[in-house]
Design brief:
The chain is mainly alpha-helical. Helix content is about 75%, strand content about 0%.
Length: about 450
Amino acid sequence: METKTGWRATPAPLLVALAMWLVYFLARVVILHTVDLKYGFSPRLNLTGEGVGFAGSVLLLLGTMELANRPSALPRSMMKLAVFGAALIIGLDLLTGLVNFAKTPWDHKWVYYLYEYGALAGWVLLGLGLTLSLPPARRAIGFVIIGVTVITFLPYPLRDKVWGALHLDGKPLFTIEFLLRAVRVALLALLFIRVAEGTVTTPQPTAAAEGFQLAAKGLWIRVIAACVVVMFTLMMIAGKSGGGGAMGFFKVLMMGQAIVAVLALVMTGLGALRAARSGVPDLEPYSLTLGGGASLWAAGVSLAQLPIIYKAFYGGEYGRGDLREMTEVLSIALPVIVIVGVGLLATALSGFGARRNNEELRTDAQGKGIGYVVLMLVAIAIQSWMLPKSRSVGNFAMLSLLAAGASLWGTVMMAKLLGRGADSLQMEPGLPMASVVNVDPQPPA
């Protein structure tokens, strides 16, 4: 049982989420004034934002839930309102993503109106729940945040009327909106820090073990899905089958593989975050949070690409950008970030083993972590630079097998390492749940 003060008391997922948003909004301002974007749109920037939005929303929800469940001398009943607001934000984000599967998604304007008004409600409820969880004398910053939130999330048509009255449009308008969002995120971080003061964290080794087990399952799912796709692709190459039936099944298989990949990334990310929130001493929460956040960012990007892949196979319009460009953009950056994120899990286990004098775990985590990174980078190099230059079917098949073998070998190594980390944490002694009692002694009669 441990009581922390200041920013150290704030759950790591919250600080990482807010830092991601802050960097993204400031980067958008810089890019807006330094890069000439066609129609103000960039596939790379758009998908990056989708990933940041999804990962940040999940981190925000999990961090708010952790804060709401921590024992504290202050009443925490209003934190349920903050949790509901955070859940509403991510729920609406997923809803708008599903609408993009429609052939002409812009015909369903009601969904986008629902998102605008719902997002405003979600952020306001989040700020209101946090503000009312503080003593009345410390609520001023919370009401300031709510005011900034309303300004930055003005829904249509009110937004057009307000900004039109101020004669703002184009770059000046976008600059002001992004800067206001950056200010809102910075103030929200201060509010979370205030709410987290005086809360108590209790080590939960079982939760950490379950988190590593979930992350390992996500990696095993990726292995199984990759094996199925590679086997079918090689069968098509060997049989030189280009019939309609085979191609139809191939499209279904590729869509299924994309969906399973998103699920696997989400499982790995949530598992890492569960371990990060366990409060186990010597288990670095920020390494685990950054690793889990990287997997969730990749899941957000992949989730945004799902309707694009579907339309590339079965027809439809995206509205902005070329379908092929949208499916191929970030083709190198995305797997590299996943590799870095999963590698951070190995780093966390290595540090845990070193601090607990578990030399066997430390050595295993270091070796397998380095091996995973090397093998995955080799697979990316083969797929990105060697496969496009192959001149024959045999050469293509051989390089495909080499890339798949390196990727599968590295992923299996890391899955086994995470399983071993879970076993080590299960042997940790557990502690009873903590409680905080506000004692108000009565004077003797």
